[in-house]
Amino acid sequence: MNFDVVGLGTVVVDHLVLLSHHPAQDAKTNIISDAYQIGGPVPTAQVLLSRLGKQCAFIGSWGDDQYGPLIAEELAAENLDLSGSRQLPGTRSGYAQVWIDESASTRTIACYRPEHWLQPVDLDESILQQARAVHLDGWPQATCLRAAQVAQQSGAKVCLDAGSLKPGMEELIPYLNVMNCPRRFITEYLDTDDIHAAGQELLQQGPELVTITDGVNGAWLFTESTRLHCAALPVLSLDTTGAGDVFSGALLYGILEDWPVERTLKFASITAALKCERLGNRDALPTLAEINAVLQTKELRLSRWD
Question: What is the CATH number of domain 3-11+39-92+117-304?
Answer without folding.
Answer: 3.40.1190.20
